[in-house]
Amino acid sequence: MSVARSWRHQVQRYNLIGTSCNSCGKYFYPPRTMCPGCRRDGEIVSYKFKGTGEIVTYTVIHTAAEGFEHQTPYVLGIVKLDEGPSLTSQIIVDPTDVYMGMRVRPVFRKLGDSGEKGIICYGTKFVPE
Amino acid sequence: MRDVAIIGVKTTRFGEMWGRSFRDIIVEAGVGALEDSGVSGDDIGSMFVGNMSGGQFVEQEHIGALIADYSGLSEGFHVPSTRVEAACASGGLALRQGISAVASGQDDIVVAAGVEKMTDVSSGSASTALAAAADREWEGMMGATFPALYAMIARMHMHRYGTTSEQLAQVAVKNHHNGAMNPIAQYRTPITVETVLNSIMVADPLHIFDCSPITDGAAAVILAPADIAHEYTDTPIYIRGSGQASDTLALHDRRDITTLDATVFAARRAFDMAGMTVDDIDLVEVHDCFTIAEICAIEDIGFAAKGEGGKLTEEGETAIGGKIPVNTSGGLKSCGHPVGATGIKQVVEITHQLRGEAGKRQVDGAEVGMAHNVGGSGATAVVHILSRER
Question: Which residue spans of chain B are classified as CATH 3.40.47.10?
Fold first, then answer.
């Protein structure tokens, strides 16, 4: 991932900052700059999520994506934040302990890197609450 | 709008074709379809080619021009040629663009094709290329793979509806059974439920035998206005319905993890256009990139109630001879999945079936068939309904 592409969302990834729409009250993470419900009538503002939520569904990945090979087996899940929106994240938990509906909280972690000479990307992952 | 017919079809052999290039296979498909229809280069008004990622798989963009050139349709003819991309739904969308070109009266004879050459890169690089069909910034960057996204759909489906790993495996077993009778299929070996359940886990609960393979292949169909189709062939196959729909790019934003709303809406639009219902469909090719995807597809199109797809499969109703034969070609699982070509290959299979030339795979008395093609984890779906009768 290029420096600019990683840097652009740094604050949002590090702090779980998304957006919300003042017109309808919906929350967005990953952040959206247009409200799908209100569209041009929406008023999007920045919003820092509490970060707590629960696991909607998950998988244990044994054949990894490129760059994640050393992490297998790892748990990937869809987390529904308490404010409403869902996101995809790694869950740092023993694969035998994870379950649907498990309460989770955010932690700051390394997401990946672009090789030995590339940049390291950090962001938010989740652990059992 | 004019009615549209298919007057020629061709699918290349699907598989790992080390000795053949991207341009070799698409030219074989295009020329084969032209020969099947009896159309000459002079007649062709335009071409639409589905291709997901020439850029990542063979480091080649500008696919439309390349194919026109190597098909001998550039010099002298200067046929307009357009590449269409919607990840694994690229082929289905190329067909839809071709249908629009003929229906609108813009062109008479149109080539709709699809191609992917996936084995010129390592399997790791191929997986990375495929992962671009999901949300790179908010799924891929977190370590998501395509099997992982469908595994999360599968886990939810199992939790909510009681779908079992055995039922998922039965999708693969049925598709390998069909693929074994298809001369162009990548895998022509029957398997058992145990083969699937004992294979390595890729993303729990999906085993490697729940996943479609990496494949080279190409397919093409020739379209013509229905009014003149009989000038080219005794057995034109008519396009009765065409529907396309979009959904959120990322799985986590979906209304319901176990429903592909894009499939629901694309199918509904195709049924509305055709004036038909599920009861009119004699066979269907669905997008079984993973076994769970076939179960979701037959539910979302309406062949089974939500949550009943696994049971319908277990009861043998989706096999040839069952209530609704699904994936007589072997599907993506056994026939192979050259991503940009798949949507066209499905329509070629339906055409063979409706012409009554599908050999051992033939569905008796097939009059109306459907093809269902999905991009990504369900952000694009395209559905076509074809029939023998206009």
Answer: 4-122+215-237, 142-208+240-387
